[in-house]
Specification:
Chain A is an all-alpha fold and 262 residues long. Helix content of chain A is 79%, strand content 0%. Chain A contains 13 helices and no strands.
């Protein structure tokens, strides 16, 4: 395992190169260039402010900010999983013709989407500064929360990229899982609501979802302006690392078969 | 020294790969492992590839050539058997792997170079020679979709040769591009060969295999059908394709003997094609005198060596093949550096381009010390 990690580390420049290739290709030819990266989250923000101010009246104060603090990190997760599920399949010619650590491909998709995530984060940050009364100091917790999410996403990316080669049904299953997962994570509603409704095992199961803790932490920082629960973040990092380990194991198990399956 | 030791190599590809999720779940309950749904691309291949050797692999489409190369590169894992390799191997299964048409040539150089295992700083320091070799000038900063096919391939090859492997595995990439580009590729491969690198060439281009490889393996249905000296194996293959029975060989160095290849005790250092006065010369007239000089280096004492040359027309026709034994020119022993000259007082060739093969072997013709096939050229114009 250590030697495998060392091998992947040797290919780090390739990971960066592949990730930035995707970003460059996507934005180079558009007149708006990198501006588009901002426009998408901005439009979403303006739309939400408008909708929840004039159309739906929700009992949560400044609901657009609440929603976006959960929705942007969620979109980050969804895009990593969707891209990673195709990371190996779409690069079948590279798999069949060149010899490099295959982990590079899902890792590059995580990196690409992590860079893309910077722009909604900036929008969220500014939105939060303008409309939330919290102390600015809480933002120093943000890197830790993002780190926890990156660890989790890396594990998931490795897992789905490998499994989708072996079992093409995986990409369909992913869609269903993502839909269900979205609603069992406190994104559109506050976590307190779930705590009120569930109890015992059901509640424990609900809270075991690492995205619950991650989204709650984002909401703490951006919406409530308070320090997130440190114990909970440590717990999430632990779970995320476990998932990373499983993802790594799954990938190694199926890696040798990619060339046969593609 | 051995570069590859291949023992009973089998490679199977599962048929019906799709729709296996449910089946696999059932299988894990029944614990039954199915084994018969495989297409066996390689079926029990065993042979060695020596260090410093240039080996050709030929065969029909679907005979398993590329699969074998993929196994040698480490891209594909053997289903059964094993491959032991010594030295860093790089596979060129495609020129410009990972090239993206929307990126500039320069950006693609980095991407492709990294894929081939170069580091960024290595690419930085080799960038100029890549651009120079590819000969694409200012296009290097233009998006690749503006490139012609030739430019694309030249850039791909230019990057590939910058990787400095001990073992180079080439799949059909020589068959592409125009003649000038092919010649460039050939020269680069000869350069690698001089550096004592192991080279394996998979090709349908018999001319390329004939020019570059000492020894060739013919695959058929995933098995080794024939192996031995290139000219002989190519003849077998062509007979096989034509459906004619194998004809007896008449050329001097390809008689039906299994040459064993010596480990470089004697090497051909070079061959000079000269005028009667000993001046290098490449254009002759019919009837003129010609001297062909084989320079050798013998790293240890070799008794009773035989030096031979063969002259081919550039379309591959074998013209003559004299050797020292044939002409009762007895050499007791050689050691160190030296040269042997073949002199022809009255050149019997007609107008055309000719190529010279040189060889050094034992008297009993069992061991081939060195064999440089169709490497030196000369031209004959009318009298």
């Amino acid at each position: 395992m250590i030697s495998k990690i060392k091998e992947i580390f040797q290919w780090r420049q390739l990971i960066f190169s592949l990730a930035f290739k995707d970003i460059k290709i996507r934005y180079r030819q558009a007149i708006g260039g990198f501006g588009w990266m901002f426009i998408n989250p901005l439009v979403q923000m303006v739309l939400f402010i408008f909708i929840f101010k004039f159309i739906f009246k929700i009992g949560i104060k400044n609901y657009p900010l609440f929603l976006l603090s959960g929705l942007f990190p969620w979109a980050y997760l969804a895009s990593v999983i969707n891209d990673a599920s195709m990371a190996i399949i779409h690069n079948s010619s590279l798999i069949k013709k060149t010899n490099f650590a295959r982990q590079v491909l899902p890792l590059a998709t995580v990196l690409t989407q992590s860079v893309n995530f910077i722009f909604p984060l900036i929008v969220l940050f500014i939105f939060s500064l303008i409309s939330s009364p919290g102390p600015v100091m809480v933002f120093i917790w943000l890197p830790l929360v993002i780190l926890a999410q990156i660890i989790l996403l890396t594990g998931l990316a490795l897992m789905v990229s490998a499994l989708n080669v072996e079992y093409r049904d995986v990409s369909f299953i992913i869609n269903i899982i993502l839909t269900v997962w979205f609603y069992v994570t406190p994104i559109v509603y506050p976590v307190g609501m779930a705590r009120g409704l569930l109890s015992g095992w059901a509640l424990r199961l609900y809270l075991a979802n690492p995205m619950t803790g991650i989204i709650t932490a984002y909401q703490d920082i951006f919406f409530y302006g308070r320090v997130p629960d440190a114990l909970s973040i440590i717990g999430i990092i632990f779970v995320a690392t476990l998932i990373l380990g499983i993802g790594f194991w799954v990938f190694n198990r199926y890696e040798a078969k990619f060339e046969e399956a593609l | 020294m051995i570069a590859f030791n291949i023992q009973d190599l089998w490679k199977g590809y599962p048929l019906h790969y799709e729709k296996r999720l449910v089946k696999d779940l059932f299988r894990s309950f029944s614990l039954r492992k199915s084994n018969h749904n495989y297409f066996w691309a390689l079926q029990g291949i065993s042979f060695n590839i020596d260090k410093g050797e240039t080996l050709g692999i030929i065969g029909r489409n679907g005979s398993g050539k590329t699969t074998l190369l993929r196994c040698l590169c480490g891209i594909a894992q053997p289903t059964r058997g094993f491959i032991q390799s010594h030295g860093k191997a790089i596979g060129l299964l495609e020129l410009g792997a990972g090239f993206h048409l929307d990126l500039t040539g320069r950006e693609n150089v980095y991407l492709n170079g990294l894929l081939l295992g170069l580091t960024k700083s290595q690419i930085n320091s080799r960038l100029n020679s890549i651009i120079e070799f590819a000969d694409i000038g200012n296009f290097i900063d233009a998006p690749m979709r503006t490139y012609s096919t030739g430019m694309y391939l030249r850039l791909g090859f230019a990057i590939a040769v910058q990787v400095d492997p001990d073992i180079l595995l080439i799949d059909e990439v020589l068959a592409v591009g125009d003649e000038a580009f092919q010649e460039k590729c050939f020269n680069k491969i000869r350069e690698f060969r001089k550096q004592n690198k192991t080279i394996v060439i998979v090709s349908h281009n018999m001319n390329a295999v004939d020019k570059l490889c000492y020894r060739t393996v013919l695959l058929e249905s995933g098995q080794i059908y024939k192996q031995g000296s290139t000219a002989k194996v190519i003849r077998y293959y062509q007979d096989m394709l034509n459906g004619t029975p194998s004809t007896e060989d008449d050329s001097e160095y390809v008689k039906d003997i299994e040459w064993s290849w010596a480990g470089g005790e004697v090497k051909i250092a070079g061959v000079d094609v000269m005028s009667k006065e000993g001046e290098p010369k490449t254009v002759f007239k019919t009837g003129e005198a010609m001297i062909i000089k084989i320079r050798y280096i013998a790293h240890k004492r070799i008794e009773n060596p035989v030096f031979g040359i063969a002259i081919y027309r550039d379309d591959g026709a074998h013209i003559i093949g004299p050797n020292t034994k044939m002409h009762n020119f007895k050499i007791d022993a050689i050691e160190g550096e030296g040269a042997i000259e073949f002199e022809m007082e009255n050149l019997p060739f007609l107008t055309g381009n000719y190529e010279v093969t040189a060889a050094i072997h034992t008297e009993d013709r069992r061991i081939m010390f060195d064999h440089q096939h169709r490497i030196w050229k000369f031209k004959v114009t009318g009298a």
